[in-house]
Amino acid sequence: MDIVNKLKKELLKQAFTEEQKQTERLNECKHIASIYAQTENAIAVLSDMKANISYIYYGGVAEKLGLAERNTAKTIQSIWEEEIFSRIHPDDLQEKHLQELRFFHFLKSVPEKKRPDYYLIHNMRMRDHSGRYVHILHRMFYIASHSNGSVWLSLCLYNFSMDTSLSCTILNSADGQTLELEKQNCNDLLSDREKEILQLINKGKMSKDIAQTLSISINTVNRHRQNILEKLQVNNSIEACRIAKELHLL
């Protein structure tokens, strides 16, 4: 799934610096994740974007789903918890990654100190131990950033959902404000010229036609096309237009 590659690249390509008390802060966040798992019976996943490592803590939800025994934990060498992802309904998994990409870019516009106030919440379907899909509430927090603005630690929580009508929403836990994620876009992913070219591609225009329309060379058009594919992490123009529409770039 191309959106997966895009999200992973956005998270892992960030520039990280050596920070004072980094180990202390990591241990604090690991403790927070373990407490969530114990008190809410949640599956809590703390992901370290700098080290590309995840710390997973299992509560009663994990036992019910057949993933692990409650009050256990493990560490994996990836920010991608494939064992959990493999249980999520394919349609919901694609939506999850897309919304997380939107959320990541939304937080880039938020002052570092206020980022932990915001979290993403939405419903999804996951298979239990019998293969039956059950409703799960997923919450995602970016709970620590580096001084240069790079997002460092994320916390994902999985609980059984009591209200399946909840739509994908950003909540500010400090003031109760809610934001509709569909209205948050990723405009900074592409330059204005790249969006202009992609709009013409979406209309079926070839590079030669685009060059004439914009009064630029074909080489320039092709360079922009290649940049678009790389930024959206897709293999062709059809996929680029599809992902761009999902991200409200078209």
UniProtKB/TrEMBL annotation:
<protein>
    <recommendedName>
        <fullName>HTH luxR-type domain-containing protein</fullName>
    </recommendedName>
</protein>
<dbReference type="InterPro" id="IPR016032">
    <property type="entry name" value="Sig_transdc_resp-reg_C-effctor"/>
</dbReference>
<keyword id="KW-0238">DNA-binding</keyword>
<dbReference type="InterPro" id="IPR036388">
    <property type="entry name" value="WH-like_DNA-bd_sf"/>
</dbReference>
<dbReference type="InterPro" id="IPR000792">
    <property type="entry name" value="Tscrpt_reg_LuxR_C"/>
</dbReference>
<feature type="domain" description="HTH luxR-type">
    <location>
        <begin position="183"/>
        <end position="248"/>
    </location>
</feature>
<keyword id="KW-0804">Transcription</keyword>
<dbReference type="GO" id="GO:0006355">
    <property type="term" value="P:regulation of DNA-templated transcription"/>
</dbReference>
<dbReference type="GO" id="GO:0003677">
    <property type="term" value="F:DNA binding"/>
</dbReference>
<dbReference type="Pfam" id="PF00196">
    <property type="entry name" value="GerE"/>
</dbReference>
<keyword id="KW-0805">Transcription regulation</keyword>
